[in-house]
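the two lines:
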Amino acid sequence: MQLTQLILEGNRLSLSRLLTQVENDSPEGRAALVELFSHTGQAHLIGVTGAPGTGKSSLVNQLTLFYRKQQNKKVAIIAVDPSSPFTGGAVLGDRVRMRDLSGDDGVFIRSMASRGSVGGLAQTTASFTQVFDAAGYDIIIIETVGAGQSEVDIARLAHTTIVVEAPGLGDDIQAIKAGILEIADVLVINKADRPGVENTERALRTALGLAHPAKRVFRHHGQTISIDVPETDAKIWAPPIHKTIATDGTGIAELADSIAKHVAHLHQNGDWALRERARLGSELDAVLQEELMSQFLEKVQKEKYDEIVENVLQRNISPYEAVRMLLNGNLK
Amino acid sequence: MQLTQLILEGNRLSLSRLLTQVENDSPEGRAALVELFSHTGQAHLIGVTGAPGTGKSSLVNQLTLFYRKQQNKKVAIIAVDPSSPFTGGAVLGDRVRMRDLSGDDGVFIRSMASRGSVGGLAQTTASFTQVFDAAGYDIIIIETVGAGQSEVDIARLAHTTIVVEAPGLGDDIQAIKAGILEIADVLVINKADRPGVENTERALRTALGLAHPAKRVFRHHGQTISIDVPETDAKIWAPPIHKTIATDGTGIAELADSIAKHVAHLHQNGDWALRERARLGSELDAVLQEELMSQFLEKVQKEKYDEIVENVLQRNISPYEAVRMLLNGNLK
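prediction for all of em together
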């Protein structure tokens, strides 16, 4: 039987195999993605991001257990660890995770350490969500470490983005980022049994006020468009702040409730479609960019490329001039 | 007088103006970069990265004061804050910084919050280093927040990368990343007067052992090449671990000494040239990719592009098929 057919029927081994092919960007992986694409568009993509030490993974575990036990939903977890460019830093996290969720056929966990560029990572994550979506997973959680731009880009893949904080982490002014808050649909203060939870909540509320959530961002014809929504607009989603203790499950049901409300909100005001458009538009651009580059590198002569690089190294020509020379010599 | 000429003569206002043009990717900015490029290649680029709360900014301040007072070197600081995609999160940090370093004409500080893609951020940072390099700054410090892939990419621009840790930050297994350590040339445990410094040092030494530093990575013809260096190779640089207290200057002179030794090491074993090649090769590829994409988008019909995106949204065709259609229709 065909690999894609097996995946549509729920075969876990085939699913695992395809994810590896997709990660390696193999021709089989690409072909399968094309075949599976028409089966996508059903899953709810949830991004979970936050600094190390906030207990993100425990929170994701608890949320997954909740969706399994209370709603019988199939859940896929993609744990992205972009800070580990060479070795598999995500592996340890997996082992901790497995204790809670192993043996449940309705849960699939896949870790991913960056092997290439950031663009590559976001693209692989996007492809993974498509595979899980086609394979019938209702909820796909994309968990990213940290608060860098790459994490923001990956979180943007999601319909609902959860930003996790914890009390007492980082005592300097950089601790709470307006930028990361702007992508948050739901905020969580995890480890809420720790001292300092009130301070964290106060800081979050202040930062939220500064973050101007009254904005809708989407992409169109390769451009990011940002629309200011009037403050009085009833359609605005005000990100709720939840306090949780992931280790004992406190606050998880309430968090799941907020997530469900956010999905309803997205459908009601048309943002679901906008986010789909932004997500698929970005993906299209990324594939296009990669394809243009690889087509170009196939056409360019290695000797000519090396000679031009050498001239840049000698500071004879700038990178911009080098590109002009490469393009003039090869695309005419 | 020409803008570039003014910059070569040390005019700060012109420098500031050009940085803004470069950040906005204006035609004037690009033209100036081309003109200035032949004046680059003198500066020592130092990357400083680490999680929020490690006291990176204070450390960079102290290091800058050291270079100013002890060695009379001109220092530029590029503070990159990729977690702030929309608003200027870097501004606050600047104000704190200014107290120590303001009024010194041998110091130039520039903050940068991400406005576009990660690629764009790394590219702007690369362009900034060229401007400062041409303007005669001996040391260019690129300070990045966090430990994501984008920070790793930006740190890779540097000749010498310093990774800053602090005791008691993050108590889970994600706290110390093998990936970020692999890019470290020098490690700093800042806030070394805090409890837990021995634990942090022990964890760092263990992680360093796992991180296989015996590897040299460079780029060639658009590809990343990694060479395993035999463990017995005398040319291997073992990243030293420094303990500092940035607030009172403890350990700063020793850190500066290690940085100087690293530069000497890079020149001796040929890694300086390899890193230059990797850095300029990456930059060339980024400019090339961007140029290919913008040339393509100019040629493609907006209606056709929108129609294809719509077909992807309707799940009629996958992003890969969409790209194939776009390329077939327009590049033949």
